[in-house]
Amino acid sequence: xxxxxxxxxxxxxxxxxxxxxxxGAGWHTDDIADEFNxxxxxxxxxxxxxLNPIEQVWSWLRQHHLANRSFKGYEDIVDACSxxxxxxxxxxxxxxxxxxxDRAMMTTC
Length: 109
What we know:
Order of helices and strands: HEEHHH
Radius of gyration: 17 Å
Number of strands: 2
Strand order of the largest sheet: 1-2
Distance between the termini: 22 Å
């Protein structure tokens, strides 16, 4: 995870600040972004999939491409997932509508 955050930090333009939204996964610890001065973490409250944009993406992928199917094998799964993902990212408005949130909610301990 630190390597991923390092890449985000490196790609963030000088004078800008990146915010990464994380769910409650065990490796998403509170101090994970401490070493980056241009990066902050917003941790979602427990049991709040409606606030996690990626949950909306997974739901759309399942509903429109991946649910109620059987696959012949690994390559068939990879092909189906690739087609589903490419379909999703080809519609910029859909990506924005599923991933946008009007406000970010922070919780503190």
